[in-house]
Known about the structure:
By secondary structure, the chain is an alpha/beta fold. The chain is built from 13 helices and 15 strands.
Amino acid sequence: MQFVTRHFKALLALLFVSAGATGIVLAQQEQQNSRDFGLDSAANYEVTGIFVNATGENAEDARRNAWEQAQREGWRMLYARVNGGSAAQAPNLSDSSLSAVVTGIIVEEEQIGPTRYVGRVGVMFDRARVSRYLGVSGVIRRSPPMLVLPVQWVGNTPMSFEERTPWQRAWLRFRSGDSPIDYVRASGTGPTPLLLTVGQTGRPGRGWWRFLLDSYGAADVVVPVVHLHYAYPGGPVVGRFVAYHGPDRRKLAEFSLRVTSARSLEQLLDEGVRRIDAAYTRALEDGRLRPDPSLNFEFGLDEEALEEALDELEGSVAAAQTRPSAPEVNTEQATATGRYTIQVVTPDANAVRSSESAVRGTPGVRGATTSSLAIGGVSLMEVDYIGDLDTLASALSARGFQVQRGAGTLRISRGGGSNGATPPDGE
């Protein structure tokens, strides 16, 4: 009888652990899928690492009680983070009020019993809804757009976007909604593997950097680096992380993390991303994370050049009106068609479609195609236009776009601005 009881308890313990492990795997898979398909992290605050321990009448009731406990604890932690005070100073909100501002629960680790739930979870808060309780407008100080160029070292082999690496995937998973750093994260498709290489991180010349940053809609670059050291295949892994900034690779922070198994590599890299983001945030607060002035970004319309372009356009129209109509004029030969890459602020999918339609309907535009899509950020559009860039800027402005003139490019947006990715003001 003791033998049966002992084995029954062992089997029950195994089922208990297996249920917890299954919950972890499923929750992490769901979290991974939501991130890979473009979860709008900019619209949410995220609080992670909340330990919960709750009981209930059954497993489902225990889970519900634990998640309500996580909402309350997450609210206090978020209030302290945003307002810089103590968590005890957070106003008491009812569970119904918290449920109205919480958009999701992130299960980091959980164990489920018949009447008990123990785990570590995260809580996501809707930025717009929770801001009125936080006493802020929902707008935080943000950096200029920073292109992220992650570099992973394994042994003596470095890798950036040449191939998809675990370090690159960790940055794609990172939710930057409550970070003041405006990260521009490339997807790794198209020409990116040829442009954003390890060799580029050591290139001192500014000309090519200007071209890359213009192409990706960024003002500067950050280079987070990880050196991975495996004790033996499948064994402990040590990651040495270094946060660099700018084309000259100025070191801002360095630290090391360790996990006991290669199966925990994702957790190691995710924690590395969070700590590097914290280092960049501190650098922004103390003034070290500023755009390199040698990159020489000067946005804004050149009014004199625009006036000259308008005068030339008016002269061309007047000449065309007085020209005899008998000979047929080939307008494609009279005015050359140029191809321009312009930046388009696209906060959502509707903005992509409406911007393409509006640009195609602009007089003189022969074609417009989105070449790089960034929902919630800045997309790139290839435009075939009969005329120069200044004339195109004037034509788009007449179509109702807000137009900013950069070094060889334009940035256009509709209505309320540029979704936080405003070009630097030349400080």
